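Known limitations

Structure tokens in this collection are predictions and should be treated as such. Users comparing against experimental data should check residue numbering before alignment. To illustrate the layout, the record for Polynucleotide kinase is reproduced below. The input appears on top and the generated tokens appear beneath it.
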Amino acid sequence: MRKSMKPTVTHDHLLALVPADPAWKVDWAEIWSLWPELAILDTCPQDPIHHAEGDVGKHTRMVVEALVADPDWQGLPIVDRANLFWAAVLHDVGKPAVTKHQDDGRVSSRGHSRIGASIARELLWHAGSPFAWREDLCGIIAHHQLPFWLIERPDPIRMDIETSWRCRTDHLYLHAKADALGRTCEDQQAILENISLAALTFQEADCWARRFAFANDESRVAYFELEDRDPHYAAHEAFPCTVTVMSGLPGAGKDTWITKHRPEHPVVSLDLIRDELGVSATDNQGQVIQAAHERAREHMRAGRDFVWNATNVTRQNRSKILRLLRDYGARIELIYVEVSPDRLLRQNRSRPDAVPDAAIDHLSKKLEPPQIWEAHKVTWT
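Generated tokens:
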């Protein structure tokens, strides 16, 4: 984790670097000096078939220049312009971590969108960027390639609907257009046509610049679970209990939130169960998870509201408990707690069971805050 009481990069600084009328000039020297994660792009190769222009750094600059020259981007409110500008700057920041030279001479960078979103999230967390603004930007990065091939998928409308809950589709379109223009390749025109067709499918699915409107919360949660679900189906909502699922890095303040907002609820806490069983956080957790799941089942069989308290900082980890709760028909409220990096370290060190800084650093790099489609209600605090 970057340890600096006075971060060299602040959100205000990022906003000040967004080009403005009348020159729309990009200060590349200043931008490229912000983070070493940008400088390394200049030495990261790309496949010459898709990127004859050269390395990732050159491509990134071309994409940003194409975006800034777009009248549609220039006409956006400053907050949206800044969001898309920094999404363009950081959209391929994950490539150095996954770029490989293939035996046939090609260069691949599979998975760079997801890795790039994680890197951008950590950089912007340390810069103090607002949570919602940051997550909108990370959504663009995580899905920035989707408009290139969306129209070729067997069910583009379903992907339209899901994407509309992960990022703004009109912003995704603007980024994709700049991404296509900011490269040298023989199929550039075909890519641009695919992007335009993707925009039409977003509009056809009624999720252009807005999330698709499900009939209710259960309809949305079920749609993201089941591949053959009708998006217009109005699901019946009758829940035997409500389970509050906590999410957040160690020391973020989950226990404090529970004490303040759910004082009357029983709590299934993995930390407490570990203490009861004498299992350390580095031991095999099978016994702990089994005991926690059984306690959760007892509460749900009794129709009792309760709290599930664990870090749950990745979607994969959350999915295990969410699946169990869904099997019992519970209404799920996801609560994500986040504080600044410096405050997180202070709060963690003041706990009797403080987690090593290195462990928090590891978790912060994997962090995937809950998305609004994951549960019936998601609160970011």
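For this record: Residues 188-204 form the longest helix (17 residues). Confidence is low (pLDDT under 50) at residues 2-6. Please report discrepancies through the issue tracker.
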